[in-house]
Amino acid sequence: MAVRVVVADDQAVVRAGLRAVLAAAPDIEVVGEAGDGAVAAELAESLRPDVVLMDVRMPGTDGIEGTRRIRALREPGIRVLVVTTFDLDRHVYDALRAGASGFVLKDVEPEDLQVAVRTVHAGHELFAPSVTRRLVGSFVPADPAPDAGPTGTLTEREREVLGLVAAGLSNAEIAARLVLGGTTVKTHVSNLLTKLDLRDRVQLVVFAYEHGLVGAAGGEG
After folding, report:
1. How far apart are CA 31 and CA 24, in angstroms?
2. Contact 161/178 with Cβ under 8 angstroms?
3. I need a labelling partner for 164 at 20 to 30 A (CA). Which of 28, 32, 76, 174 fits?
4. Which residues form the Response regulatory domain (predicted)?
5. CB-based contacts of 147: which residues, under 8 Å, 6+ apart?
6. Nearby residues of 3 by Cβ (< 8 Å), 6 or more positions away
7. What residues pair up with 53 in beta bridges, in sequence order?
């Protein structure tokens, strides 16, 4: 079954280009286009696409608010992939914080854009953890105060796993670091996503930085 995509960008020529690139892939189908974040969210609600390719900077309702509205639909199967000009961009950080699952640059190669859509749809990480950490770290205070709020429901082991996820370690690397089985680590990550009401590992990284949990269990350094 084809990956169903909605393309959101305020420039018609850009939308046409993105549509052409995606339509060239036999396993990707563009089912709708939007000129701003509000229309993108409306199409997400009515069409239930797999991925919304969202320009982050648009007049009117931007991609950040559009992402937030899609997230509010409580449809975990709909994933947002942000398109941006600069990787270290406050708008990208805000979009990730709002619920986007990753981002690509506007000058991405056509084949890489197709791969990015497939990757996000499959629920996998889209970019190197180091990029995520560099981006998030640029816009979070150097020493954020630990917050007992939602973290109070976490076990000590879950806090350790969260810190290591934020440090960019894979499940296999976390298992080796904590001397746990791979299935056990996967369960801890799943529990973290459920307890914290987050979508994916990208969201876990953002959460960990904002709550001063990076470095737990020796995850940084």
Report:
1. 14
2. yes
3. 76
4. 4-121
5. 210, 211, 212
6. 27, 28, 29, 50, 51, 117, 118, 121
7. 7, 81
| Tokens 């080796």 -> residue | 176
Given a contact cutoff of 8 angstroms between Cβ atoms, the answer to whether 158 and 135 are in contact is: no
Along the 221 residues of the chain, how does pLDDT read in single tens digits?
899 999 999 999 999 999 999 999 999 999 999 999 999 999 999 999 999 999 999 999 999 999 999 999 988 899 999 988 877 778 888 988 898 988 888 888 999 999 999 999 988 766 655 667 777 778 876 665 555 566 778 899 999 999 898 887 888 999 999 999 999 999 999 999 999 988 888 888 888 888 887 754 444 44
**Strand ranges across the sheet with 3-8:** 28-34, 3-8, 51-55, 79-84, 102-105
